[in-house]
Amino acid sequence: MTTTTRRVLVVGNGMAGARLAEELRRRDPDAERLTVTVVGEEPHAAYNRVLLSTVVAGGITTRDTRLKPEGWWESRRVDVVRGSVVTAVDVTARTATLTTAGGERVERWDELVLATGSVPFVPPIEGVDAGRLASGRQPGVVAFRTVDDCDRITVATESASHAVVLGGGLLGLEAARGLLARGVEVTVVHPQAHPMDRQLDADGGAVLTRVLSGLGARLVLGRRVVAHRPASDDRPPTVALDDGSELRADLLVVAAGVRPRTELARAAGLVVRRGVVVDDHLATSAAHVHALGECAEHRGEVPGLVQPGWDQARVLADRLSGADAGARYEGTPTLTRLKARDIDLASMGRVDVDVHDAGHEVLAFTDPVRGRYAKLVLRHDRLVGAILLGVGDAAGPLTQLYDTAAVVPRDRLALMLGRAVTRGSAPEQVNLAEMPGGAVVCRCNTVTKAAVVAAHRDGADTVAAVAERTRATTGCGSCRGAVEGLCAWLRSAEPDRGAGEPVQQPERPAAHHLDQRPTDDTTAPTEGAA
């Protein structure tokens, strides 16, 4: 019996689209059932937006952000068309019109996936043209969204001494920290009363403001930029605020959030609200057309984070490949983490609950002088929300409790310190031997302890080998310490173990903290994955 090969066309070569192509090939490695074509507007290979703030800070180059090495996609029979724009889709004829450097071409498909992502939100500012900004032709003003934006910012810092960052959300603060690392004086302008207002309460925001000020940033809160004024013969470039004041701005970085790209879906007649509306199967209103990532609206929510897009890619790959035709996407727990040097901040779940709320138990710890703030929100003895600033040792165990919805320890002080109740009800740190196999080690890629153990049994006895096998550490990289700890524990458990033999518990296993984080932000406009 012959198998019909179906054509899958993915519009968008960002983190969601590239992950879908990878997941499809994992399920159909010989391309017997599916041909996969990915179309991307940018001329670059798919890259990790989570790492862009590190590029701005000078820690890595843009080349280091690539998701896969040269030749990886070709060797797996994924046709990647870079520097090309899909200008039209016919959902009846199942065709797409592509505009490339060589002209137009029509691509036929059996299944179409929209992974068009999002674009920077540019608030109305006199002197700033959104079109010119998007094309990189707005002098003195740069968005913070792509590797090209990073290059523009890097070039600008060679001559700029004062920068204004528009937006005090995740992206804005990451950009600000990167600019500070390059020796630029930075002012962050944010319209709300405290930074990261979607992830923090007022007390947490106040502590974060103090931390940022200690790092050298100036914050102007409750104000908006209304005009950008280029340099003249007798004055430097400035921005005007809505109270009439002005700030010097040799460089203005716009990081005010993102909005889903839906114009192609609208033109094709799909149902679009804030994003392209999809159901639990990630199907749109048109047959054989799907959407995922930052352009998709699922159950009324539009994710601005990387993790939901990757979770959606797994579900959609199961469905399109036939590996699990009944797979459903039911949402991704919200967890955001600020990826900036010298700032350790995680926020998850419900954080807008008052300490005296009758329906919840709320624990709080504030240490502004040392830049520490913790707030845990419990319901029925389970962690449903948390803010963790400057308490890095506690972040991993608490994230694990949040992810697994496990009952928390009765000792609330031990809980605040990130400890778990183990033998004899004595509070201890997370113990690798006693950690359940389902505990998530790498949250970016949903890699569990069991997956790392299985990879080790298969011969992956180094962090690099585990990364190749499971993708752990290849997202934001913050779980590397946990993976190293697991590898060391597994090696010490039975150094002479034969292949396939069960791993025994070592006599005195080391205690390690898991550190997991996803990538970026939420809602309208969403702050967007860096």
Automatic annotation (TrEMBL):
Listed Basic and acidic residues bias regions: 509-520
Gene Ontology molecular function, alphabetical: iron-sulfur cluster binding; metal ion binding; oxidoreductase activity
Keyword Disulfide bond: no
Enzyme class, spelled out: oxidoreductase
Start and end residues of each FAD/NAD(P)-binding domain: 7-312
This protein's record includes keyword Heme: yes
InterPro entries, A to Z: BFD-like_2Fe2S-bd_dom (IPR007419), BFD-like_2Fe2S-bd_dom_sf (IPR041854), FAD/NAD-bd_sf (IPR036188), FAD/NAD-binding_dom (IPR023753), FAD/NAD-linked_Rdtase_dimer_sf (IPR016156), NasD-like (IPR052034), Rubredoxin_C (IPR041575)
Pathway listed: Nitrogen metabolism; nitrate reduction (assimilation)
Superkingdom per UniProt: Bacteria
Sequence segments annotated as region (Disordered): 496-530
Family the UniProt entry places it in: Belongs to the nitrite and sulfite reductase 4Fe-4S domain family.
Protein name (record): Assimilatory nitrate reductase electron transfer subunit
Originating organism: Terracoccus luteus
